[in-house]
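FORM 7B - TANDEM STRUCTURE REPORT

SECTION 1: FIRST PROTEIN
SEQUENCE AND C-ALPHA CELLS:
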Amino acid sequence: MNIARVASQVPGLNEALLTLFESAWAPATRKAAIGRFIEKLLAHLGAEECLVYLARNGGRDLERAYGTENIANLDLFDHQENLALVSTALHRGEPVILNAIEREVRVPFSEEAFTIGSLLCLPLALRGEKIGAIEILNKLGGEFGSEDVAFIEGISQPLAVALESHRMFDGAEKLAITDDLTQLYNYRYLTQYLATEAKRCLRYKKKVSLLFIDVDGFKRINDTFGHLTGSEALAEIARMLRGTVRETDVVSRYGGDEFVIVLPETPLNGALIIAERIRKRVEDYEFHAQDQNVHLTVSLGVANLPKHTLTAEGLIKKADAAMYRAKGLSKNTIRVAV
C-alpha cells in the first residue's frame, strides 16, 4: 500500500509523521510527537489504546517504549502472557488479532479498572531487522480485521524509521544518566528527577514513595569470590529490581551496593507491598558464584512524601535511615521511616 495515500486518508497524519522525524533531535518533543501520532492513528482505527514496543538484545527482549497515558500504570502490559503475544508477532513477522477477549485489568493501588475487549499486534521492521511491534487495543463498536492490518502495514515503514532515529538519540543521551555496571539510572539523574517529582507532588497534592535498598553482607561476596563476581551479582540484582516494579517507577544505583527506587503516585501501603515483593524475590534467588550457588538478602527502608517529609532530600534521608534500622535489627527486612 502506498504510504502517501495511506497518510492522506487521515487528517493530520502526514503532519504527525513529519513531526516524528523532526522531533528526533529534540528530547523534550519526542514523547509529544509519538503521542500526537498515536492520537491520529487511534482516531482513524476507532480504537481506544496503543502501545509501541522496541526490541532489545537482537530481538530477544521487548521494552514498552510508548503508549497512551490512560494505561501508563497498568501492570498487564509487562505481564509475561502479553509480552509472549507481542514476541510472537515480532518473531513470526505476522500480525496477531484477538477479538472478544473481555479481560478486566485493575490499576495497582486503585479502584480503577480497564477492560480489554480486542487486540491487534503487528511487527515493525527496518532493513530486514525486527525493531519492535505496535499493539492496538479495543476496537470501538466492532472487531479488528484485514483493513486495520493493511492500514497499519502501510504506515509501519516510516514509523519504524522514526522510532529507530529516536532510539539512536536516546542511546546517546542515556549514557550521561546511566550507571555503566547496572544500566540503571545513576545518582545524578535520581537527584534531578526526585527534585522535580517532589515539587509536582506538593503542587498537585499527590504522593510519591521511595525505597532505599542495601545488599546485606555484600563485602563477603567480593572477598570470597572476587570483584568480578560481585559486579555480576549487582547487575543481576539490578535486572531483578527493574523487572519487579512498574515501567513508570525510577530505579537507580545510589552507589556501591545501594539502590533507590522512586514510586510515583504510590501511597505508603503500596510501597510496602512492592518492598516485600523485592525482599522475597532476592531472598529466593540463586546467584551463581564460580561453581557455587549463593543466596543474598536485602534490607529496605521506605519513606513517603508528604507523610514523612516535604523535600526530595528529606525523602532520601528518611528512607536511608529506615534502611539502616532494618540492617541493624535483623537484616533481610523492611522498616518504615519515622
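SECTION 2: SECOND PROTEIN
SEQUENCE AND C-ALPHA CELLS:
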Amino acid sequence: MLQELPETFTNNYNFEGIAALSNCSGSLMRFENSKDTDKAMILTNGHCLETGFPKPGQFVSNQPSSRQFTLFDANDQEAGTVRASRILYSSMTRTDITLYELNVTYAQILTSYNVRPFTLVSAHPTAGTNIQVISGYWNRGYTCTIEAFAHELHEEGYIWQDSVRYSRPGCEVIGGTSGSPVVNADGSRTIVAINNTINEDNEQCTMNNPCEVDEKGAISYHQGYGYAEQTYLIYSCLNKDNQFDLSVKDCQLLH
C-alpha cells in the first residue's frame, strides 16, 4: 500500500469526477447501465477504508458511512463536497477496492456541481492500453500503458490476483495516489482498474514492496514497479436490477 510522501506536482489532466479523500484519492463512478436517478458512487481502495485496512480474507459490506469527498471539475477546481450514506463493499483480498454509495444521485451532482461520473468498464483490461492515473489527493496525473498482468501480487499478508503492472517511466505513483482511477487515455472517461501500490524499497513481498508470484510459485520483484487492481469483477456482483448484491450467483468478489 502507498504511504504519503510530501511532494509538489503540476497537472495537465481532465479532473472532472476525480475525488479527494482525507488519506487517498478516488473517483465518482457509475456502471455501464446506471441511470441518472441512481444514487451516485465513489470508488477507492480497500486500504483507504476509514475504519482501517480490512484483514486478509475479510470484507465489509452494507455498512453505514458518512464519509465526505471533495469532487473536482475538469479544470482541477474544487466543485463541491458529497457524502456517503453507506459502504457497499470493501476488501483487500483478490482486489483492493472500497465502493461507497452516496446520499445524492448522479443527476443531483450534475445539477449542483456540473460534474459527470466516470464509467466503470465491465471487460478485462488489455495489455498495451494507454492509461492515465489521476489523483485527487495530489491534484496530478500520470501517463503510461498497461505493461502486463501479474498472476498474483503479494504485499505483507495480502494477495491480489491478475494485477495490472504499469509501464515505466510514467506511472511512478506515490502515497496519496492510492484509490486513483486508472482511466483509459482515449477520452472515453472509462475506468479500467484502480491504482494501489508500487515497490518502493526493492524489498520482497513486504509492506509497500509488492512482489509478483507466477503460476509456478516463482517470485520476482523490482523497485519502481507500480500496480493497479481489477475492477471489472464488480460487475459479476450486480443483480438483474443493476444493484450491487453479493448474493448474486457467481459473484467473483470475496464474500
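SECTION 3: OBSERVATIONS ON SECOND PROTEIN
Confidence is low (pLDDT under 50) at residues 3-10.
The two ends are 22 Å apart (CA to CA).

SECTION 4: SIGNATURE
Preparer initials: ____
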